Amino acid sequence: MIPLTEDRKMLGYELLASYPGISCFVTTRHGGCSQGNYASLNCTPYTGDEAEAVRRNQEIVCSSLPQRPQELVIPFQTHGTKALVIDGTYLHATAEERHSMLQGIDALITREPGCCICISTADCIPILLYDRKNAVIAAVHAGWRGTVNYILGHTLDKMRARYGTEGKEVIACIGPGISLSAFEVGDEVYEAFRKNGFQMDYISEWKPATHKYHIDLWAANRLQLLDFGVPSAQVETANICTFTQYEEFFSARRMGIKSGRILSGIMLTHSNGLH
């Protein structure tokens, strides 16, 4: 990952930095105005933080980007597998209708320029996708429940059905989240992955020290990308553990769910050749 701002309140991805039609970011905990467990750059409105602090933090993010987004689209995530396409139907809806459309959504897809689609995480895995041929982007929230139910694969399938997305054209970035060494799970979680067909020798490890299985959510999502035909050279993994680096990134396992969230966003800029 590369710093987007001098104060490191926002990071970017090297793979996507080479595409002029794309703007993307991942926030850290720094550079905002929230207090306590939300300190300081919490941009997510669904966590119990003060609404005015969230609004100001969102403004900090928008004004820090090279091109200001028309809006930040932030869904209310529920660890499901539903993906919403942000198109004219959403953009022409009322504020109340938009709010309703974003409930229970864990992935967003769009080809609308200037519309920044976002995912909130704090140990779960944020994944940003760019179909460079069809100028389609997606943001995916993959906690263990979403991962075990193949949310990333489902999102890619939806991109293919709607826009003709092919794996060879996808650039994928797997963001900061909990690492294998930090993510110890109960037997029921291990069994859920095994029963759903995951390569357990590739995505898990038994740790004698903890007497627990540990799951690698980065690897489990990378497998879904490779299965779709995304070349491994077109997948960037941040390799940043939010649980370990909780002073830099929000971690719900450390701080509880009443805490801040990292915001990962991606946007097609108006300079994109297909628009």
Automatic annotation (TrEMBL):
InterPro entries named among the record's database cross-references: Cu_polyphenol_OxRdtase, Cu_polyphenol_OxRdtase_sf, Cytotoxic_necrot_fac-like_cat
Name of a matching Pfam family: Cu-oxidase_4
Catalytic activity: adenosine + H2O + H(+) = inosine + NH4(+); S-methyl-5'-thioadenosine + phosphate = 5-(methylsulfanyl)-alpha-D-ribose 1-phosphate + adenine; adenosine + phosphate = alpha-D-ribose 1-phosphate + adenine; inosine + phosphate = alpha-D-ribose 1-phosphate + hypoxanthine
Keywords: Hydrolase, Metal-binding, Transferase, Zinc
GO molecular function, one term: S-methyl-5-thioadenosine phosphorylase activity
Keyword Disulfide bond: no
Family: Belongs to the purine nucleoside phosphorylase YfiH/LACC1 family.
NCBIfam families: peptidoglycan editing factor PgeF (TIGR00726)
Name of the protein in its database record: Purine nucleoside phosphorylase
Taxonomic path: Bacteria, Pseudomonadati, Bacteroidota, Bacteroidia, Bacteroidales
